[in-house]
Specification:
Layout (H helix, E strand, L loop, with lengths): L1 E4 L6 E5 L9 E8 L5 E4 L2 H9 L4 E9 L7 E8 L2 E5 L2 H9 L3 E11 L5
Antiparallel strand pairs: 1-2, 2-8, 3-4, 3-5, 6-7, 6-8
């Protein structure tokens, strides 16, 4: 499993698969480093390639998410505020961002939440 990192780079958002799983429909997640010095993830190859053409550092496919919710996986929500993108597995946090003016970009597939250690 691979971790997706949040805006602050020290907060993991979710665990995703390093490789596709045979017989399971999966979505690749492309990783870039935005001009705002933030992790930038997208399931859209054309979006990743277009950003890379503008000079945004591009690291390719970082892992894979499940297309459908199986085995306890939850949606990985994505929203936009200006040039920044935000990813979370927390529906309440996603909805709060939308309520404050962020643009809902749907989901990037389904992932496994990272539980904080007590």
């Amino acid at each position: 499993m691979q971790r997706l990192w949040g805006v602050q780079s020290t907060i993991p958002v979710a665990s995703i698969f390093l490789k596709p799983v045979d017989g399971v429909e999966m979505l690749p997640i492309f990783h870039l480093w935005s001009n705002q010095h933030q992790h930038y993830y997208t399931p859209n190859e054309a979006e990743a390639e277009n950003l890379a053409k503008t000079g945004t550092p591009y690291f390719g496919v970082v892992g894979f998410t499940l297309k459908d919710p199986v085995c306890g996986a939850v949606p990985l929500y994505r929203r936009r505020a200006g040039p920044s993108r935000f990813a979370t597995t927390e529906k309440e946090r996603h909805d709060a961002g939308i309520g404050s003016g962020h643009i809902d970009e749907g989901t990037m597939g389904h992932v496994f939440q990272i539980k904080e250690r007590q």
